[in-house]
Structures are given as C-alpha cells and as structure tokens.
Amino acid sequence: MKITNQLRWTVAGLTVFALGTTAYADFNISGNTLDGSVVNKSGIVRGATQRLVKLETNGKPSDDLIKTLDGLIDGLINGNPELKLPKATDPTYLEKINQVNTSWQALKATIIQYRQDPSLEAKLITDSEDYFELTNEAVFAAEAFSATNVQNLRLTQVSILALNLGVLAFILWTIQRATKVLQDSVGSVAKSSSEIAETVEKQGQIITEQTTSVKDTTVTIEGLGSTSMQAAMQANASAQGAQQALELSESGTQAVAETVEGIAELRAKVGAIAEQIMQLSEQTDQISTVSKLVAGVADQTNMLALNAAVEAARAGEQGKGFAVVAGEIRKLADQSRNSADKINTLVTDIQASINSTVMVTDEGTKTASKGIELAESTNEVISKMAEAINQVFENSQSIATSAKQQAVGVQQAVSAINAINIGAKETASVVSKVQDSTGQLTDVAQQLAVTV
Questions:
Q1: Would you say residue 120 lies in a domain?
Q2: Is the pTM here over 0.70, yes or no?
Q3: Range 401-412 burial, b when 16+ CB lie within 10 A, else e
Q4: What are the tens digits of pLDDT across the range 87-122?
Q5: Nearest 5°: phi and psi at 85?
Q6: CA distance 236 to 234
Q7: Structure confidence at residue 98 (pLDDT)
Q8: Is pLDDT of 139 > 70?
Q9: β strands within 375-451, DSSP E
Q10: Which member of 60, 85, 140, 201 lies 3.0 to 4.6 Å from 75 by CB, making a disulfide possible if both were Cys?
Q11: Does 46 reside within a domain?
Q12: What is the CATH number of the domain that holds 23?
C-alpha cells in the first residue's frame, strides 16, 4: 500500500477511534451520573423515611411523603427516566434494594397500625431502625457499584491512552518511511529531469512535423467532405425518384384492381346473358313444338275440309253452301300450314343464332376469366415491383442519411484536426515552457536533496 494511503487510513482510523472513545467515555460518564443519582436517591429514601417516622410520632402523618417514597423505591428497582434512575442491574444492589422494598412495605403497614393504635410506637421505632439498617446497606452497595464503574472507566481511559500512543508511534514510523522514500525520490527526480529535458526537445521537433502533416490531412479530409456531401445529394435525389416510382406503382396497382373488378363484373353479366340465352333457347324449342302442333292441326283441318267438300258435292244443290264453307276452311288451313312453316323456318334461324351466341358468350366468359388471371398476375408483378421500388427508396434514404452523417462526421473531423493543429501549436509553446520548467525542477530537486 502507498505511504500516502497508509497515512490517510491511519488518520481516518485515528479519527474513528477518537470518536468511538469519546462516545464510550460520554456513555460511561452518563452511566456514572446515573450511578450518582442512584446513590443520591438511595440516601434520600433513608433520610425521608427517618423524617416520616418523626412526623408520625409527633402526630403529623404525611401520605404525600409515603407516596414519594413509593415512587423512589420503585424507580430504584425498575428505573424511572423522570427521576433519572436506571433499572437496577447489579446483583448485590438489586438484592439490597429488594430487601429495602420488603421492609418498606412492612413499615408502611406498621405506620397504618400506629395511626389507629398509638401504643405501637415502640414497634414502629424498632421496624424503622431495621429499615434504616437495610437502607444503609443499599446505599453502601450503590456506592460500591459506582466506585467499581469509576475504576473501570479509569482503566478504559488508560487503555485508550496506550492505544493513542501506539497509533502516534505508527504515524511517526510512517512519516520516517515517507521521509526516506522522499529522499530516494529526490535523487531520481534530479536524474530524470535532465532526461526529460532531452525528451522534450525531441518532442518539440516531432510536434513541428506533426503540425505539417495535420495541415495536409485537413486538406484531404475537406475534399472528402465535399464528395460525401455530393453523394448525399445524389442519394437524396435517387430517393425522391424512387418515391415517385412508388407512388406510380401504387396508382398502377389501384388501376389493375379496378380493371379486375370491371372484368369480374363483365364476366358476371356475360354469365347472366348466357343464362337468358339458354332460357330463350328453351322458349324457342317450345315455339317450334307449338308450330309443329299448329301444322298438324292445319293438315287435319285441310283433310276435314276436303272431306267436307266431297260430302257437299254428293249432297248436290243442298251442299253448295257447305262446300263454300269447306273451301274457306281449307284456305285457312293452308294459310295456317304456310304460317307454321314460316314459324319453323324462323325458329330454326333463331336457334342457329342462339347457338352462335352461346358459343360467343362462352368464349367471352373464358376470355374474361383469362383477363382476370392476367390482371391478377399483372397486379402481383406490380406489387412485387412496388416492394422492390420501396426497398430502393429505403436504401436510398439510408444511403442519403449515411452520406449526410458521413459529411457531418468529416466536418467534425476537420474541426477536430483544426483543434489538433491549434493544440499542436500550443503544445510546441508548452514544450518550450517545459524546457524552462525542467531546469527549474533540477534546481528544486537539488535544493530538496540538501533540505531533506
């Protein structure tokens, strides 16, 4: 451990020791004060009891004095802060004061009896004398206990004095060691001061060279700072372009989504048209069936009209009117037949058109589905392109931020190097002063060698 640290710890220990011994002495003094209070209060108990007996025999009883004696005796046994009495701890004194308390209780009983029967005066005096003997023994025990404590305090003070002398001897020994070390150090300082002077001179030359190198480094770092700032500006411009591309890709994604919705809606409408065309085809089939039925009815009507004409011809003159009606019916049947044929032709054409429409509708549905798939693929590609552009944007921002930080760092480096340059100049000046101080140190070392 260093001598200075030893001295510090020694002084600190001495201080703590002094505080501790002072506190201990104060505690013992307080204890001795309480011991004196015990001796004093024990004597008061003895004297107050004598006075009480005199008052009782003179016909002047005093209950207040009895109450006071009760408080004193209880305080001597159990302690009483108001009376400055500690709790009895010494075995001898505690035994005596308990005997006093027992005798006091008996004496009080005798006093009460005496007040009722004055003929017990002799017994009162006898009990009081026995009580006085016990109080004397209690006072002697308290004095012996107090004297023992005083003797212990004296021994403690002697021990503390011996310890203080030992600590002072250790401090003296430590100071002698420090003096010897200082003497040895003075010689080393005197020797080292000349070496320091030579080293300082060399350091001055090195600092001059460092100043020149710092200037060149400053120029180079300033150029690097300009380049970093340009890189930051370019990275910022790239980030702005990436931001615009990202916005366009988001617009494209939205447009593709709207296209997908439109194609899906178109596919739904085409599906609805296909269902309606299928219903139309079914209705056309029903029309064809009805047309065939009408043609059959027309054929049967024509046959009936022909038969009716034959029968009318057989009937002769009476059947002419019926023959005319049969002829008109036959004409209507022919017209119905012709109309049915035309309807069948139109239905056939409509069915052909419906079939073509169904095929076209089916192709439209397939085309719409392919369009949706293509639009979804396009949307996925645009989303990936947006992610890539976003990554480019984030990278550009990171590059711009890094470039700006680098530019700031370069500026700080330039400032630091300028500070180093100034510091180097100041160091050169200080080195010159150190050379002068080294000479003074040599002189001081020589003086210390003579003084110490």
A1: yes
A2: no
A3: eebbebbebbee
A4: 888 999 889 899 999 989 988 999 989 988 888 888
A5: -115, 125
A6: 5
A7: 92
A8: yes
A9: none
A10: 85
A11: yes
A12: 1.20.120
